[in-house]
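Inputs:
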Amino acid sequence: MSEVLLRVTDLVAGYRPDLPILHGINLHVGAGEMVTIVGPNGAGKSTLIKAVAGLLTITGGHVEAMGHDITKVPTEKLGEAGIAYVPQVANVFTTLTIDENLRLGAAALDRPLAARRIEEAYQRFPALKSHRNHKARALSGGQRQMLAFARSLLCAPRLLMLDEPSAGLSPLIVQEVFTELRALMKSGLTILMVEQNVKAALAISDRTYVFAEGQNRIDGTSEELTQNQEIRAIYFGNAGAGNSASGDS
Amino acid sequence: MLQAIADGFMSGAIIALGAIGLTLTMGILRFANFAHAELVTAGAYIALAVLWLTGAFMGPIGPFSFGIPMLLAMVVAMAGTSVLALTIDHLVFRRLRDRSGHMTLVFGSFGVSLVVRMIILLIFGGAATYYSNELQIAMRVVPGLRIMPDQLFVLGLTVVIVVALHFFLQRTRLGLSMRALAENPELTRVNGVDTNRVIRWTWIIGASLATIAGVFYGLTIQLRPEIGFHLILPLFAAAILGGTGNVIGAVIGGLIVGMAESLSVLFIPAGYKLAVPFLILLLVLYLKPTGLFSGSAGGAK
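Outputs:
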């Protein structure tokens, strides 16, 4: 088994300490894997990512990243733990320019390294460079997502956590975003992603966790889950229509 | 008319300096701090206390009514007011920020403003006082317009401060972090920014600018414990007129409010002058609640 980059054990967390949304979540993400979390609205998918990112109150269990306990690590130290997080919405600063967004993402680095990483980001996402002095509010949904990816990669994370990267994007742009995610994975990045588009998620990821009511109900390789009768019935309309039905949950 | 415009410009510069700090705290800390105007009073009186302690050991500089000790006193007062603002934040606002809603913070700031004002009254008394007994002779600039050298100093230094602050917000990492925090605190933290450090610097910058505004008020008008009480409405009118969180907007808002106050006495009895910022505030909230420059360049937002 490959090195485990993230291990979540018996996690209880929520927006309020007295009102937990996650009730004992267990999951792990191995180095080089792309792991997806799917499930109905309110299942606790985004809550899990936010809890790992230190944005919510954890009242039970613990989170380990690269072998270190990060259960109580504040959000601003997430980068030092080797983790980057891209929120679902409001994932770029719309009142700042593209260049300023990237400078902020590299704020923890010393200036020469920050300048080098920003230049590398522009080489990877050339469309951003041509708009570098434009406000991020002028970007399309897909371009914003690329800027969010670019910014999150500046501190060279080992694990990238994404909260519904396809949310609000047209099918064509979703394809572009997922193509970029595949490229990032090939470059050695480990990805943990929450996704509503189950069909697309199963197609792209190595393993998938299915959440329901704050607990992980089913998990397995994407191949196993694609064959799972329960999953097919819930997400693909009927047991035999896996290739034709919409994958949106 | 020309004199009223010039006077409005001068008082507008003081309002602008106070409004910058207010708009920064409103944009970044997301609450209307009614105690901010008391930082203006506190800054002015701390400078006076430093002057009392050190004495005016050198004469005035050139045509101005003040000398080097006044400028040193202002710098010491900026540090003192910053410590006061940080202490208030630590003892009151941070606790309320963590545990309660915006309205509790606003009411808390009312309480803090009363406490600060009463302490100043207790220490310095209620009588009006001055930094210097030097008499200033107003210079005739053009027919119908006379300006005192101290007023020109206030205007010149205000321009320098606004340009420097704009440069700071646009070009430095801390300035960038402040603008980011004003837009999205959660995403700012995700980017690895220590938001508590940014908040501390917001208080220091706001309190320092409030001190300068208070010292300028004392230099060009007089020192009274009610400086803050009289400035609170103009400061809010300027900050809201300029768009919450927008520094350049606050400066323009300050100049508009100062000018409106000054020109109003040409048409209405001087006693009603204080109502002008209130009217501006009402008009802005009614016609364009987001302010004239909301979301535009050049500010914390």
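Remarks. Chain B has a mean pLDDT of 88. Chain B touches chain A at residues 173, 176-177, 179-180, 182-184, 186-195, 295, 301 (CB under 8 Å).
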